[in-house]
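Predict the structure of Aconitate hydratase.
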Amino acid sequence: MSALVRTRLAGREARVYGLPEFAGASGFDLAAVPFTGRVLLESLLRGGDTAAAAALGKRLAAGEEPGLEMPFRPARILVQDYTGIPLLVDLAALRDRVTEPAGVNPALPVDVVVDHSVQTDFAGRPDALARNEALERERNNERYAFLKWAEGAFHGLRVIPPGSGIVHQVNLERLATVVAHGTGDVFHPDTVIGTDSHTTMVNGLGVLGWGVGGLEAEALMLGLAQPVRIPAVVGVRLTGTPRPGVSPTDVVLALTERLRRENVRGLMLEFTGPSVAALSAPDRCTIANMAPEYGAMSAFFPVDGETLDYLRRTGRTEADTDLVAEYCRRQRLLRDGQEPRFGRVIEFDLAGVGPNLAGPSRPDQRISLAELPGSFAALHSGAPRTEAGVRDGDLVIASITSCTSTSNPRAMLAAGVLARRAVARGLSVPGHVKTSLAPGSRAVTRYLRAAGLLDDLERLGFHVTGYGCMTCNGGSGPLNEGVGAAVERAGLTVAAVLSGNRNFEARVHAQVRAGYLASPALVVALALVGHVRADLEREPLGTDADGKPVLLRDLWPDDEELRRLEAEFVTPDVFADDPAARTGWDAVPAPRADVFAWDPHSTYIRPPAYADAGPRSGPLTGVRVLLALGDDVSTDHISPVGAIPPASPAGRYLTEHGVPEREFNSYGSRRGNHEVMARGTFSNPRLRNRLVGDGDSGGTTLHLPTGERLPVYEAARRYAAEGTPLIVLAGRSYGMGSSRDWAAKGPWLLGVRAVLAESFERIHRANLCAMGILPLLLPEGRGWADLGLTGHEEFRLALEGVRETGTAHITAGGVSFTVRADVQSAGEWDVLLAGGTLPYLLRRLRAKEAR
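Done. Here is the predicted structure for Aconitate hydratase.
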């Protein structure tokens, strides 16, 4: 049965895979199927699997768990430069190893948005943007030349140049089409797979997508579908209306806490209920952005009139918007108020949300304003005030940054209005606070300037520092003069606040232990206070010129004023392309060739060491534990992104290769060099390795059985010389955070062949499989310490038949137990047992050439 039908859309001939016709012929009620499921149904139909589509439709319409595995091929792939360069390095390595290199090309359109390389070296001054962008070009010239080569060498690859904006905001404002024009005259839903976990942000526009590791994206780029075991689709039913003064950030932080508690890890969420209509498209995108923080695979808002209005407001043509409306209406993808059937529904009352923050170390640690001082108290070191005027609990970074809030005009306008009122009352920011504004796109700067609010933000030190994922991703640069040295001398526990989505320890800055997430307006308010010891509901932010206390409620913006400003200044013209960024990019020199000319002396771009890994076979014996870890270990703990310390193994490597310290750049920028990344793996100063005690281990471990304490990289080298395979022990939620494939590549390079954990975060679990590292689940409800393990034992992993049974038997000292392999599809097993994605792809390419 063919589901392809002819129709007309917005005055043009078109073909679509008719969902209403297929549902009618297959005997299920399409209106009962969640909208997420409808998009998946269309994907199955387009792939020709009508039997699976019928089975899926019937199960979803009945409110049952899908229980199916499907090959998912998105309309496009989206990557940022930190993940994109390693991905393209791998593809360049594949071209080296085949007889027809020009034949290795993306099978799907790929956009690379260069947004992660700019850093906040300069802040709080009018020339901060120009200086940071100049440093960015200087530091990353070699990386950008490689990207320019890739743009010319690979068909279907487009680079969005540096200075354009953050990947997810660019996706919302420019790249997302909601309805895609496929081959010929076939139209289908716009879907996207991204190598950044916050790819889910575009779910707020009715575009289904989620984040994967770069290794999974490589397979998609080379024509392999992503094997997806369709999880349950859970409804999040929204009721009530946000109270006056409650920001979109307040809502998403409250949702993050609730949904993490509801254990939605790996599930597909869909927002439904009467109050979806109360949320603007940017509000929905703010909520969808933080899906990785509450653990969901996706967080979908169906297309409706608000979606169409957003497309118009951001400069899409009327013809394109009409096509989206007609296609979605015809395919029953336009939300009409009728709620689908869900097997599980989580109720959430928007009216119950109040002003809040999250911290001091996880995005799901929601706290009220009054709870801020208490949340910090547990981290208090008791150090006295220093000669630099800094003390425990002082705020040293306040940054309006990242895509979560900077893509939301009302949130950004609120920060500007609060700044205006603070300036009018004569308030200022203390000198120890490093302030910065990193808009998600140039549109933000335009409407803030047009509204006259940019000047007020600048008067408080919130000058534009760049258009990229800066402070949120560890590109925070040095603290203000004298502050960093004072923190080190006195052992202070200082804090950062940002409008981003992640606040894991040492992610923002190695010297900052306490991190808080807040709305842009609260970032400004806390900067004025200068510390996190204050109850913002009752204590003043400061005193005005007359000596009168100024409270937060005195400065807080009025909702009606924000609506008026948005209507007046957030108009289609502010979203127009800026040709200046493209002009600068076009001037970057790059070679033209099918095969990349590797520079043997490069410290940025090197051919990967894992391309020729062999297949896995047999048991693992004589195994040692490289690290023994607890709960909530993030990919930032495993593979850091910030500054490279000179005394670290990675710093010493760069020094030995003639790189001066001022040119070290960051771990993230060095991801094209496996030598740097292997040395940086598990080197986060806040990592707690229980082999060496319960506190911060500073990236060290014990070599066993000698018991000598060494940097992790040095210990791994010694184990490799001895022929000793390695494992990692961990607790719950291992690998939470960014979709960082180097958090799997790095351990593989260190010799790690399996990770034993109580649970894995979705993307990192898949990344481990994609590197040939076996993710093993400890017995239900028991941690490794509960089993009587210390990590000092010698392990034996009996892996014979693990694919068939899904289990493996482990002995360690006098302890024996059975673990379950957390491998979720036949495709993942194929890749894992082949030794990883790159060897697997290489064998397929060679087999294809041999035919």
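The longest strand covers residues 620-628.
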